[in-house]
Amino acid sequence: MRCGIKIGMRVLEAQEAFFLARRPRKDSPHTTAAYRRDLHGINRLLAEDAGVEPEALVVDRLTAGALRSAFGRFADTHAKSSVLRAWSTWNQFLTFCVSEALLPGNPMAAVARPKTPPLSPKPLRGEDTPERLLSAVAAGARRARDPWPERDLLVVALGLVVGLRSAEMRALRVGSIVGRPGERRVHVRGKGSRERSVPIETAMERVVDDYLASCRRRFPLLRLSDDAALLLDRRGRPIGRGGLEYLMRCCYRWAGLHDRVPAGANLHALRHTFATRLAEDGASASEIMALLGHASLATTQNYIQVTAREQRAAVASNRTYRAFPDRSPAG
């Protein structure tokens, strides 16, 4: 130990201690896996630069120079968003190392990071797209070996009128739909284990009831208890992340709306559409924050900063429009 600093601890050992310390935060498995990938990728580069195996790398080697070199090489083969996420992960890990007296200070302040790209909503394009999507899915437009329009419609509706993320949909239980008929709500466990309750209208209640009835017809031996997964695949098992994403891509394609989905949005475009329409119809930022399950109001404001209606109003205020004639010349 030097001046109260513990020396010689292996980096991998320190990282396991970091994850142990995070357990009370109840990170989702997806978040934990992403953190591990970020740490592993830089570990490998640091070890290569030091001429050792990752298992032999010690915390003392985590200097500003070593990290700058590793992140520079990492940036050569990764997108800006990946570099930014890895920088954030390592900043948290090294802050932990400082708090545990493994390092005298956090060297990440000396490592350049990409600027945070501004968040912008990615709703479905086209004013009538949500309605067309719902109608097509309800009518069984998705052609599949074993079509299940009731399930497909519930997935689309959970995005468009409840605003759920993919992980939140997969975490739903049968008992997540609570309340009396006409006053039901969807109880959601979101990021960081934050819970919220989203009211649903009678039309959505019917979608849920029709889906559960279809489950009983398809799987007569399956017991739909309150703690059973709500969304199932065609074998009666809880639907996976890949299955849910594939389902949505097929719904867009068979509805003829795949060209109205922003790049990289897919299922999340439904949630963005939910938020954007709420903003356009006059919901406050705090109301939207509660319904989306955001941890901070700033995140919500980024989602709804400029809605389509506000954009149109801003364009309409352009003084140049006043110079246009009342009607076009004859002919």
Structure description:
With 331 residues, the protein is mainly alpha-helical. The protein folds into 2 domains: 11-110, DNA polymerase, domain 1 (Orthogonal Bundle), CATH 1.10.150; 129-314, hpI Integrase, Chain A. The protein is built from 13 helices and 3 strands. The protein has helices at 11-22, 29-50, 64-76, 80-99, 129-138, 149-160, 166-171, 202-218, 241-254, 268-280, 285-292, 297-304, 308-316; strands at 177-178, 185-189, 195-199. It has a 3-stranded antiparallel sheet with strand order 1-2-3. 29% of the residues are buried.
Give the topology, please:
Blueprint: H1 11-22, H2 29-50, H3 64-76, H4 80-99, H5 129-138, H6 149-160, H7 166-171, E1 177-178, E2 185-189, E3 195-199, H8 202-218, H9 241-254, H10 268-280, H11 285-292, H12 297-304, H13 308-316
Antiparallel strand pairs: 1-2, 2-3
Helix pairs in contact: 2-3, 2-4, 5-6, 6-8, 11-12
